Each structure stands twice: as structure tokens, then as C-alpha cells.
Amino acid sequence: MYQAGLVLEGGGMKGIYTAGVLDFFLDQNIEFSSCYGVSAGACHLCSYLSRQRGRAYDISVDYLDDAHYCSARNVLTTGDLFGVKMCYDDIPNVLNPYDYDAFNAYQGRAYAVATNIETGQAEYLRLKDMRKDIIAVRASASLPLVSRNVKIGDKLYLDGGLSDSVPIMHSIVDGNRKNIVVLTKETGYRRKPSGHLGLVKVRYARYPKVYELMANRHVAYNRMLDYLDAQTANYQAFVIRPKRASGIGRIEKDKEKLRLLYEEGYADARECFEDMLRYLENGDSVQR
């Protein structure tokens, strides 16, 4: 196990790129002492920590034609685009069983990042017992406008990407001097201002911090990219990301496009593997 942070961005269905990267890591028996997943990144992190190669990919594509998994009907009938019962009960316990014992054998620390909608702050929810803590993953992946707020204890949460899309700074503060960061946005990407802000303001009138986060998300995200560049130069981050835009939407139904993006993630991880090992073992920044 490498004493390093693994930081996984979200990105909806673009997260299947991350699934490819993580499956390559599993093939090479690569583990990290601290893992941070945001939204889709938190979902795929689960299968990585249980060492179930291919599971994240299968879950991403096998149920796309099932309205109980992801559909506008779900939004209208339950308030959630992704069916909560199917995603967080039926799949892990029946359809594609989660290996809870393998997860329990993981010796590091794992977190799902979620946004407290009352404070507007990111919270880093520890994953210790996936039978109970799956709700933290659900909170991390609850997209605004198309998901219900998720209550854990006396707090309400939404998608972690609202408050900390790529928690590299938090990982460094936690003491991780080396970090592998997997992004789902391509090289050169800069975030633009969010749309639907009027709808956000109405929907979350009781939680004004949500509107503030959405209105300023592009500024925070682009500032994070600048910080990440600086940490790469300082040898505290090694970044894996797509070389070009995938053309995949946040909600994508084209299985062939998803397969290709998964394979791209796997290939990109393989391509930079020797450089990544050199970075982890020697601390040299050798990214090209």
C-alpha cells in the first residue's frame, strides 16, 4: 500500500473514465492509504476498495435501459433521477453483490465528500462499514435539482461537487504529501458559469448556501485547477485525466460511448503507470 492520497472527481456518467483507471490499478495491485471520492467518484471508489474489478463498469452500463435505475419517471415519482432503492439496495445486495468482507479488509481510510446544504461546507464522511455508510455515498452523489436532500443524523446533504469538486487541498491538509488525482474533465478544461440558477434559487430557497455555491461554482472549480497545477509542480500531485473531451453528457445512455471512455481511462492509466510509480516511490514529477 502506498502512503498517498487517491482523489477522485465526479462528473456523472463521465465517471466511467475513472472506473477504467481504477480497474487498471486493481490489475496492478495498487492501493492507497487515503481515498477521497466525490459523487460518481465516490460510487466507483466503493468497487475499487472491495477489489471487484469490472463491477463499476457493469453497474454503469447494465441497467441503463431499466427505468428504475435512471429515468425522468423516477424524478417525477420519487424526486430522484437515480432510483435510490435500486442503486443503494437492489444492486449491492442482490443484482451485483458488493463484497463487504473485502472492503472490511482495506487497511486505509476512505471518504465520500458531501455538501452540507445548511452551512454550504464540504464534509468528508468516513466510510467504515459499507452496509451502513452507503448513505454517505448516496449523499455525495445526490445531484441538485434531480435528487432529494439526504439526511444523515440531523444534517442535510447534496452532491459533494458543489463544495469541493476535487478535494486535493483536503488530502494535503490530511497529511498526504503525494496524491494521485483522477479527473473526468479533459486537459485544458475550464468551467463556465452554471445554468438554471433561477430554478436553483427557487428550489433551494430555504437553503441559500446551495444557490451561492452554484452561482460561484465555476470560480471555485477553476481556482482549484490552478491550485492543482501548482501542487503538480510541487510534486504533491500526479494527475490522470482525459486528453480530449469525450462528448458524453452527465446522463449518457449510449453504451458504446461509455465503453470507449472506460477503455480510455484504463489505457491512460497504463500509459502513465511507470511515471506514476516513479512519482510515488521517488517523489519525482515526471508528467508529460
Summarize the structure.
The chain is of the alpha/beta class and 288 residues long. 45% of the residues lie in helices and 15% in strands.
Structure, described:
GO terms for molecular function: hydrolase activity. The active site is at residues 39, 159. Residues 6-172 form the PNPLA domain. This is Patatin family protein. This protein is of the alpha/beta class and 288 residues long. The chain has one domain (2-282): Cytosolic phospholipase A2 catalytic domain (3-Layer(aba) Sandwich). 45% of the residues lie in helices and 15% in strands. It has 13 helices and 8 strands. Strands 1, 2, 3, 4, 5, 6, 7 and 8 form an 8-stranded mixed beta sheet that branches. The chain is globular.
Give the key terms.
alpha/beta, globular, 13 helices, eight-stranded mixed beta sheet, Cytosolic phospholipase A2 catalytic domain, 288 residues, single chain
| Strand runs, count | 8
pLDDT averaged over residues: 96
CATH-defined superfamily: Cytosolic phospholipase A2 catalytic domain
End-to-end CA span: 25 Å
Instruction: Give the fraction of residues assigned to helices.
Output: 40-55%
Largest sheet features: 8 strands, mixed
Low-confidence stretches: none
Secondary-structure element series? EHEHHHHHEEHEEHEHHHEHH
Number of helices: 13
Assign the CATH class: Alpha Beta
Q: What is the strand content?
A: 5-15%
Question: Looking at CATH, which topology would you report?
Answer: Cytosolic phospholipase A2 catalytic domain
Shape: globular
Keywords: Hydrolase, Lipid degradation, Lipid metabolism
Motif (GXSXG): 37-41
Active site: 39 (nucleophile), 159 (proton acceptor)
Motif (DGA/G): 159-161
